[in-house]
Amino acid sequence: MKKLFLTICLLFAVVIGTAQNSDSNIALGTYIPYEMAEVPAAARQILETKLGQMVTKNGISDISYNSRFIITPNVSVMSKDVIGSAPPKIVLNLDITLYIGDGVNGTLYTSKSFNVKGVGSNETKAYIAAIKNMRTNGEDVQMFVTEGKQKIIDFFNNNCELIQKEANTLANQNRFEEALGLLVNVPVNSTCYDKVGKSLKTMYQKTIDRDCQLKLAEATAIWNANQDLDAANEAGAILASIEPSSSCYPNVKSLFSKIESRVKTLSDRPWEYKLKVLDANIAIAKGAQQVLMAYAKNQPSTVMYNIHGWY
Question: What UniProt keywords apply to this chain's record, in alphabetical order (predicted)?
């Protein structure tokens, strides 16, 4: 069977942030396809921002990194006119159709079209003016996004067992962050959410334990090689990123104390690094998201979306 998820599918529901007034952890990436090369770069950026606003205003997390589920546009120029003023103005009449769907298997969930007009002193400014006129809220927009949201929930409900199996397979390959990414993004209002709760806790602990061992070894090697201020700062930055609930954290605190003591003898300034403090009030899901966000920053964006046939 075709692999269920991308390597790091749905990893970053928190890279951009949690949706305003969100009732779930559903994530929807904004994707501007290469086929829109005729739209000026500045206008494409405005369009991406507008899509993000549309998503977050209607209760979904707006992400742009490796999301399986995407909202993507197609822009068609219906007319282009030049107004003979001084200086002349360009008037663009655009049809912008938005699509929500599964960008991995190419399943289109829903679509909506907007007709917008813009006037500018050049074509780029006319594109920008038109795109800015596209609404990001309203009953019809809310219905469009809600339909896409429900389809995403249905996906998890229908594939829960496969998601858990995929996570276990990744974990057996020591790919804990990827396994954790599958589980942490199961929507809280899906029937699958309660089923993955125990697995999520286990996967989170395995992830931070492995991360702790790797970072502690790296920091130790740096410090043992050269116990000066540069080495202290480099090792300190690594130690400060380790989760307090990881199994090797006592050893982290021990090494940190040694370095901190050495820094005091080398400098009369306070050391800028501090270890994380355990917060018992942080839920496993929130802690997992924080771990994945840190992991995300070092990963390339490699998603190749399948949107053929959507328009």
Answer: Signal
pLDDT tens digits, 39-94: 999 999 999 999 999 998 887 875 655 678 999 999 999 999 998 877 889 999 99
Q: Are 249 and 212 in contact (CB under 8 A)?
A: yes
Residues 6+ apart with CB under 8 A from 28: 55, 60, 61, 62, 63, 67, 69, 70, 71, 100, 148, 149, 152
Q: Are residues 127 and 198 in the same domain?
A: no
Q: How many Cβ atoms are within 10 Å of 104's Cβ, its own excluded?
A: 20
Same structural domain for residues 46 and 84?
yes
Are 148 and 168 contacting, i.e. CB atoms less than 8 angstroms apart?
no
pLDDT value for 65: 57
Instruction: Say what the pLDDT of residue 84 is.
Output: 80
Strand-pair category, 69-83 with 107-120? unpaired
Nearest residue to 307 via CA among 111, 101, 39, 154: 101
Residue showing tokens 């829109």: 36
d(CA 71, CA 110): 10
Which residue range forms the structural domain that includes residue 36? 27-158
User: Does residue 13 have a pLDDT over 60?
Assistant: no
Residue 64 DSSP symbol: -
Integer Cα distance of 19 and 21 in angstroms: 6
Record the pTM: 0.77
pLDDT digits over 124-179, tens only? 999 999 999 999 988 999 999 999 999 999 999 999 999 999 999 999 998 988 89
DSSP string, 22-58: -SS--EEEE---GGGTTS-HHHHHHHHHHHHHHHHHT
Last residue of a domain, one of 124, 141, 158: 158
